[in-house]
Each structure stands twice: as structure tokens, then as C-alpha cells.
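User: Here's a chain of 284 residues. Predict its fold as C-alpha cells.
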Amino acid sequence: MGGRLPLCSTSPQPTTDILTVQSAVLHGMVGNNAAVPVLQSLGWTPLALHTAWYSHHKGHQGWFGEVTPLLLFERLLQYAMQAPHLHVTTVLSGYLGSTDQAALLARYVPPEVFYVCDPVMGDLPGGQYVSNDLVQAYRELLVPRATVLIPNQFELGLLSGAPVSTTTAALEAAQHLLAQHPALQIVVVKGIPVAGELHLLAVSRERLVRAQHPIIDYCVHGTGDAFSAAWLALYLRTGDLQTSLTSAGQFVYRAVQRTAEQRQRELQLVPELPWLRQTAMQLA
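Assistant: Prediction complete.
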């Protein structure tokens, strides 16, 4: 564990740190707002570098904000990787605001760092929501550098060059990426829907492990960010693909289940005025 210096220390002492590089929002649980508390709840004290500041998730109307200025992003990234009192051994990246940020990550993250890349580019059913240039930056700069890749179903298809609709296709796409990139050790597929269940895969050159849990018919933004952080925290503790995959899946499943149940209880408290109930449901 790491990140905090002893209060009685008169000079900074080296620590072991996780750096999480993702967006931040004023309201909501996405990007670093999801990853940081998940990592903390599982025993880590991460450093958080924000790639952008937004009012809330961009999937909702009325969002505003901006990408972190590139000079500031570079200075903070350089500080995190080079400050003598920090010892970043692991980097988790999520939503990136520009291709320039991707280039800086590839430049400043050294080969010995355990780099977990969550290639945030799109999802089903909406499809791609970043520029083609950023997709290309992932393919050419970050995937070749990554130790672990954690795409969702849609992102795996973008990176492998063909749509992924079955667990067999996901396995083949993961194996293709592993064969193509020598530094890549593990591909974790966040989920393929199969008959009412979400099937998760973790593929290395030596092993294939699977896990699954029921699909909850409730949309919660940030579950992918939470899953990636949970998987990383658990894998660093256990070093075991099966344990980290199964437990990370259950961690997120139970969180979504609790959120859905709580929201349902809240809606039951709304007076039976049709327009008010409709507004409450739209805000869910």
C-alpha cells in the first residue's frame, strides 16, 4: 500500500504508488470519481491525474467543462513519475481528452511500470464517442505499451479490427492482440452478454479464465471504470487471474444492484403525480 507519508517524517520517503489517469466530474461516479474510491476501498491510496474536468457524465445533456491543458497535464505526469518521494509502479489510464495526452503517457510511462490501459473509446449500443485520431493513438501508442488491456466488447472490436459479439470472438480477438504486442501480458474483457448473463474473460498467453453474473436492467455510468479499478486492486493483491476477475465482477454487480434497489425505493416515495414521477425517472 502506499501514497501517504508518515506525519512525523521530516523529509519525503519513497512509497509505492498507483497513478490513475482519467477524467473527473463535479457530479457523478465516473472516471477518477469511480476509480479512486474503489482503489481506496480495496486498500490502496492512489494518485489521481485528471485528463479533463466536466460537470457530469457527457452522456447526459447540459454537460460542460474542458480537457486539462496539455502543459499542466505534462507537468503533473512528469512530477508523478519523477518526484523522489513518489514511487509509481503502476499506472491505470481511462478516459483521455486528446491524442496529445496519449502521446505523453506513452512517453513518460517507463517500460518497468505495470501499465493497465482501459481504452475508453465507446460502448454499445451508442458506438464510438471519441475521435478516429484517438482510436489510432490507442492502437499505435498505448496498446503496444500496455501490460494489461481492459476493453469492453465494443472497444475490443475496435482494437482487433472486427466486431465482437460472442465469447469465442472475444477470446480470438484477445489472443490476436497478445500475439501482436509482445509487452502485453493480459487482456481482460469487461463483458459479453449471453442469455441474461454478462460473461467476463481474462486471457493471458498461458491461461483463460471466465466469470459471469446476471445482467441488471439498470443503467449506471462508471461501472466500467469501477470494474477496471477493482480488477487492478485485486490482481495486485492476489496475482491470480480467476480471483481478480470473479471478485471484480461481483464487486461491480453488487454495487449496481444496491444502486438500482435504492433508486426504486426513492421512486416509490415520489407522489403519484405523473409529470413528477416521469421527471424522477428521467433523472435516474
